[in-house]
Amino acid sequence: MKSILCSIMLLTLSNLVLGQHETVKNTRTYISLKQYKKKYNQPLTKQDSIHFLIREGDTLVWDKNYIRPKGKSVPYEYKDDSFLKLYKEIAFRASKDSTKKSEPMRYWKNDLKIFISNSIDKKIKKDFFNFSKEISKNIDSLNIKQVKTVEESNFIIYLTGDFEYESRISNYKSTDYYMYWNGNSQIYKTTIRIIKEDNFNTSLLLNTMKDYFLKSLGHFELDYSLGCNNYFSGCQNGDVKLTKLDLELLRYHYSYGICKGTNIETFESQHEKAKEALKKHNHRVGFFHSY
Amino acid sequence: MRFFLIFIYLFFSHSNAQIELDIILPVNYSIHKNKKDVGKNNEIAVDSVVSNIDSTLYKNLKNFTFFDNKRLLKKYSFHTFGYSDNKSIQQWIVPIRVYFDPLIDKSIVSNFKRFIIPFSSIENLDISVVDDINKANYYFKVFDKEISAFTHEDLKDFSLEEKKTLTFSLMTYNLNVKSNNQIYSCIFKISSKELENPLFLSKLKKGFYLSLNRFYSSSLAENYSILNKNTEYVEEVSDYDLAMLKIHYHYIFKTPVYLNQFEILEKKYHSIK
């Protein structure tokens, strides 16, 4: 539903130039004749025709009864094709293998509240949270907190031999994560289960925690064609760390300058329209996000 | 006309090899900060990302002289890919630092240290034994329970004596790999009762060698080679085993290389040498 709402706003509010994260007020919403007929199932009046608006050959009608949900509109964030190609492979799991289907992008809308099981050394926890804080600091709409109890958490990291917090992966032979998302592709719970034997020292364990944590921020697919200095290449050797490009990919994933939780087709068509508006009219369309 | 057709054929066959090879070439990206004026004194970032294919592999390809040795290459292909199209080359991408469980006798450790000396001649492969587990990424660990790479069903037709010679009847290893299938750590699990087996050291050496690429053994490998299925006792690494490692670690691939891509590399090598 959220993605549908986003698309409508793209089509109907394209004439509005809005400030960053500005709350939408005193605006009129226009819809196409087709949408009007479907919504109201009654003929247009003379009064309606006075408020017709022509945009790129299409007649738009003022939807007087439209009640805008509470939310914010964020201007389109431009990215060039080369970046988008890479982003799509990572976020939409749009593999080069044409037999595999892409998936909608997944993201965290609420704050991440991370609980790490007590069997993990305090020093490792501290280093892990320093790493996650650094990410949180660099990405506006991604808030990461440490919590002391499982009950407060929506993100758990534990080792084999601990209480099995996630029964669906409790018999896995390899380290893995299990995540839950709702119909809007918003992730609301994740559990990382780490095989203790495989991660037999501090450095291996810390890097595994960082690795799976990063993947779980968007159920990302790593792109091994990317240079190995980048985390998102999946071939980084040594400690897990983020390059400028990795951070930009994460930051963009959590940017509201495009609709969230969409499938790849919607994402592509929105970019096409938004880029056209920028090129032809030198203005940015707004993306409305309801609370 | 005939020459024209040959030219067209060569041009397209070359182009196809190029396209397929591009899949295994990594890409370097760089972000360039740009701005665009959107009126009312507003500017937005219209950063562009430039991608460049890393052609280091192309540049190095002329040095892949092992492609000239058809006999050895055929054996390497089998030991690495087996009969599978889904098995890619697996290489260690970090120096291997081996740590032994204190339950393993010191004489075994000393013998193992001598065993790995010839490996120092292999390019891109660095192996040493460490005393601190925190510096290790390869752990020979003893378990006080039965560990095996086989199920009871797999072993039901083997006699007790036969089981004793099977490398992984009471041992197994887990390789931890990156998304591109390259190896960064390993835990080698040993059942405590295997420590009593007179063949323990030999089996440890075999298992360690195989974990350098998840190699497949074969009865076609040279006699006395670790890779020969019929070799029962291993004292030292053979020239054949080292030759296989030399091919294997000649170049560290950044992306998974499957048999068909390996064959493309071979064709490409012959076309440019």
In short:
The complex is a heterodimer of chains A (291) and B (273). Chain A has 291 residues and is of the alpha/beta class. Chain A has 8 helices and 12 strands.
Structure description:
The complex is a heterodimer of chains A (291) and B (273). Chain A folds into two domains: 2-77 and 265-290, no CATH class; 98-253, Collagenase (Catalytic Domain). Chain A contains eight helices and twelve strands. Chain A has helices at residues 2-12, 33-40, 46-50, 81-91, 122-138, 202-215, 244-253, 264-281; strands at residues 22-23, 30-32, 53-55, 58-62, 71-75, 107-108, 112-116, 144-146, 155-159, 176-181, 186-194, 286-290. In chain A, α5 runs parallel beside α6 (202-215). Chain B is an alpha/beta fold and 273 residues long. In chain B, 34% of the residues lie in helices and 18% in strands. Chain B contains nine helices and nine strands. In chain B, the strands form three sheets. Chain B has a five-stranded mixed sheet, with no helix packed on it. In chain B, β2 (35-37) and β3 (43-45) form a beta hairpin. The A-B interface holds A 17, 75, 77-80, 82-83, 86, 96, 195, 197-204, 222, 224-228, 230, 233-238, 244-245, 248, 278, 282-284 and B 23, 25-31, 36-40, 44-51, 54, 93-94, 133-137, 139, 141, 174, 176, 178-180, 182, 184-185, 187, 189, 254-256.
Blueprint (SSEs and pairs):
The complex is a heterodimer of chains A (291) and B (273).
Chain A lengths: L1 H11 L9 E2 L6 E3 H8 L5 H5 L2 E3 L2 E5 L8 E5 L5 H11 L15 E2 L3 E5 L5 H17 L5 E3 L8 E5 L16 E6 L4 E9 L7 H14 L28 H10 L10 H18 L4 E5 L1
Parallel strand pairs in A: 6-11, 7-8, 7-9, 9-11
Antiparallel strand pairs in A: 1-5, 2-4, 3-4, 5-12, 10-11
Helix pairs in contact in A: 5-6
Chain B lengths: L1 H21 L4 E6 L2 E3 L5 E3 L2 E6 L2 H6 L8 H12 L14 E5 L5 H10 L11 E3 L8 E6 L8 H4 L4 H6 L5 E7 L5 E9 L8 H11 L28 H10 L10 H14 L1
Parallel strand pairs in B: 5-6, 5-7, 7-9
Antiparallel strand pairs in B: 1-4, 2-3, 8-9
